[in-house]
Design a protein that fits this description.
The protein is built from one helix and three strands. The chain is of the alpha+beta class and about 60 residues long.
């Protein structure tokens, strides 16, 4: 499969509270065939931890 399923974009930045739901979203993306891209990030918003993780579709050619 050269394109992500369900019309999803090749690059996605998943964000949300640092909780089980966020972890499941990242896990679901990996199960679909996405790969982690870069390091996760964490910040505080009104005292709540908000995390972010970029994922890319496994067929994206990386130029370094």
């Amino acid at each position: 499969m050269t394109e992500p399923p369900n019309g999803l974009p090749r690059y996605r930045l998943l964000t949300g509270p640092d909780d089980e739901v966020f972890c499941r979203r990242v896990s679901e993306a990996l199960d679909l065939g996405y790969e982690l891209y870069g390091d996760p990030a964490i910040t505080l918003d009104a005292g709540r931890a908000v995390v972010a993780q970029a994922v890319i579709w496994h067929q994206v050619i990386r130029y370094v």
